[in-house]
Amino acid sequence: MGSNPASSTFELPFPLPLDGGQTLANAVIAYESYGTLSAERDNAILLCHALTGDQFVASPHPLTGKPGWWERMVGPGKPIDTGRFHVICANIVGGCMGSTGPGSVGPDGKPYAMRFPVITIRDMVRASVALLDGLGIERLHAVVGGSMGGMQALSLAANFPERAERVLAIATTARHSAQNIAFHEVGRQAVMADPDWQGGDYYGSGRAPDKGLSVARMAAHITYLSEAGLTEKFGRNLQDRPDGSRGAKSFGFDADFQIESYLRYQGSGFTQRFDANSYLYITRAMDYFDLAEEHGGRLADAFAGTTARFCLVSFDSDWLYPTAESRHVVHALNAAGAPVSFVELSAPHGHDSFLLEHAALDRVVRGFIG
């Protein structure tokens, strides 16, 4: 089977119903696919991306030129083997890489901006299921996701239990904690405090809230790391300067420490590929996510009647979605009688560990995907 990526778009043939009571007409989903769909259409894997991800999971990003965000995991002979499986990764509704989002043109010919309807994780999943319907894929071999992608994987299993044989959710949660919401709110306020945000109507103005979005990215990026990882990589090391000196010359506000320089680099690079309004909408969707609340307040009821096999993976240094969150989901699956395996892996890199080299994670993914 081939493994060359194919970029495509799919316009939903019906208005997408949203949890907020509105509908989104003429919604477009942009996606990448890898590998060949079997004649029986039974080898498809849906990959769900995280907050700052997109559909370019195993192909170079068109704006930055950087490798796909999970290129180490997806490809011929890799744990998610595109020589065997047809892998689909779609940019979520509300995103900014081709799928309909706040920057898209609305029915009146103007960008939606903050007129875009509020979306939820379940809305994102509805759009993905509509895409699968359009592709003629009734049942997935597996749905896979990490972080917000894991939320989508769990939501698909709960709301469309017949659509996936296997569900692999990595470094994720069934609901956002107060701390999660608090960090997101700091980021949103940074964006909205930037004068260039202009109430969200910055499209076509030549000005965008890049400074605010950069600060939001910096704050969020801290939550993706671990104290041990930061200490090992940066410690209190001072920044080398062009003149050969090091550290603070006049105790000003330049990037005196290496960690400061690193965060500023992360923030500035992010603004090149992400839309600030999309960031507002997607973080809000994550904050609204509560899988138990969607199903009467009992998480086990969310998985009643599921026929899928589940695997949950957490990392011991992840304090954004700690292992206790995965165990909470595992206990609910046990109560629902669903087959589930669970592993906590040791890694020094915090929440981002699922994106980085990790031989044990590779073995888990390869073994579960089958």
UniProtKB/TrEMBL annotation:
Amino-acid biosynthesis keyword on record: yes
InterPro entries: AB_hydrolase_1, AB_hydrolase_fold, HAT_MetX-like
Pfam families: Abhydrolase_1
Record domain AB hydrolase-1: where: 43-237
The protein's annotated pathway: Amino-acid biosynthesis; L-methionine biosynthesis via de novo pathway; O-acetyl-L-homoserine from L-homoserine: step 1/1
GO molecular function per UniProt: homoserine O-acetyltransferase activity
GO biological process: homoserine metabolic process; methionine biosynthetic process
Gene3D superfamilies found in the cross-reference section: 1.10.1740.110, alpha/beta hydrolase
Oligomer status and interactors: Homodimer.
Protein name: Homoserine O-acetyltransferase
Naturally occurring in which organism (per UniProt): Tsuneonella aeria
